[in-house]
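Lab notebook page, bench 4
Experiment: in silico fold of construct C2
Operator: M.H.
Input chain length: 126 residues
Purpose: comparison with the prior construct
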Amino acid sequence: PCIWYFTCLLIDATLLLFTMSLLLKGLDWFVDRTEIEELRHGEYGDPPRRRIWFLQLVVYAILLFTAKAFCLCILYRNADFFSTIAAFLLRPVMFHHRVELVFVMLIFPFITSIVNYWIIDQIIKA
């Protein structure tokens, strides 16, 4: 179970982050070409309007769902490959079950969440 949880976290920390970055850059490109200013992330009008914020939230949620679905398909088709990588990365702590549990459930998610949110925030903030 730890290997599969770690595998999903690893996919989120790498492939999902890369996919979301590409989708957000694609959205930037689309906004630049079509000049739909309401979709320019981080800009909500002056004064800020809830409608623009909500529209951007919906677009972000759609992009995130798309990226998650893509990652799920990749994970499903290559499950053995990804679980082998996860087992290799967890090998140093695999026989210390409490250490493995703390690493997989606390340390790794904490670090990857900080890095992921920081990178996505750098992309979407105005």
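Observations: The mean pLDDT is 89. The two ends are 40 Å apart (CA to CA).
Next step: discuss at group meeting.
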